[in-house]
Amino acid sequence: MTAITPDPRPSAALFRELADSDLAAVLFDYGNTLVEFNAATVSALNGELESALASLYGSVDRQALDDLRQHQRLQPYSGEFRENDFHRITISTVRALFDRHPTPEEIDAIMRARYESFLRHVRIEPGIDNLLEALGRRYCLGLVSNYPDGQVIRHSLRNLGLDAFFGDRVVVSGDVGHVKPHPLPFRTLLERIDLEPEQCLYVGDNWLGDIQGAKRLGMRAVLIRQYELVEHFDSQPGDHEPDAIIEHIDELRALV
């Protein structure tokens, strides 16, 4: 296989080199890669969760809710990288904020509110579909996303008209029980597309989950810095560098 020397700089030349190699697949993260998921998005989602909780239990301490949701988002990135269980974190949210155990009907209502608000607030920029169409003519496309509910990610892809580019080549951490950088989400997709890590380029925004996860498995990886981060992870000694850093996803057009 063609050896590619890591270069953590934006480089159309590097992408041309990759295009001339045995690269067979381009795999993507979802939030802050294909779609924007910044602080404003998080605030909007927390606001709708606050409204759902208030309709059931009364006044909500918004700062406590925001702090709790941030803790829940970061919790899986420790220990064995186990993904949150959506049902369980709904229960723990109600217990933490209201010191009570929700009924099954209340749990369903809260989870439904979160599901529907995700679909309303997650959007893509114009041109993403054209980029994926161009890449898909040459490479197998896939998606590996960290989120506790795989169904809502697939529903979001359908809503945004992106599902046709990926088909069943979508793996969500909530489906497999572990978040990136754990190898299981990546390996699950690799088995599905019947490719080796060295044949794949992974694109994502999360230094730990995306870049370290993909590089540890042997993929080439691109760090995208297009959107504001909501999950910050500092580089640690021994970390892998990305093969390239891009400021906008459209830079990937150099691959074709």
Secondary structure elements and pairings:
Blueprint: H1 12-19, E1 25-28, H2 39-57, H3 62-74, H4 86-98, H5 104-121, H6 128-136, E2 140-145, H7 150-159, H8 163-166, E3 170-172, H9 173-176, H10 183-193, E4 200-204, H11 207-217, E5 220-224, E6 244-246
Parallel strand pairs: 1-2, 1-4, 2-3, 4-5, 5-6
Helix pairs in contact: 2-3, 2-5, 3-4, 5-7
Structure in words:
The N terminus is likely disordered. A 6-stranded parallel sheet has the order 3-2-1-4-5-6, sandwiched between helices. Helix content is 47%, strand content 10%. With 256 residues, it is an alpha/beta fold. The longest helix is centred in the first third of the chain and has 19 residues. It has 2 domains: 159 residues, Rossmann fold, CATH 3.40.50.1000; 83 residues. Helix 5 runs parallel beside helix 7. The chain contains 11 helices and 6 strands.
Helix content range: 40-55%
Number of domains: 2
Q: What spatial form do the alpha-carbon principal axes imply? A: elongated
Oligomeric state of this protein: single chain
The SSE order reads HEHHHHHEHHEHHEHEE
Q: Gap between N and C termini, in Å?
A: 20 Å
Biggest sheet layout = 6 strands, parallel
Q: Name the average pLDDT.
A: 93
| Count of discrete alpha- or pi-helical segments spanning 4 or more residues | 11
The CATH architecture of the largest domain would be 3-Layer(aba) Sandwich
Strand content: 5-15%
Number of strands: 6
Structural class: alpha/beta
Which spans have pLDDT < 50 for at least 5 consecutive residues? 1-7
- Rg result: 19 Å
CATH superfamily grouping of the largest domain = HAD superfamily/HAD-like
Strand order of the largest sheet: 3-2-1-4-5-6
Give the CATH level 1 class of the largest domain: Alpha Beta
By CATH, the topology of the largest domain is Rossmann fold
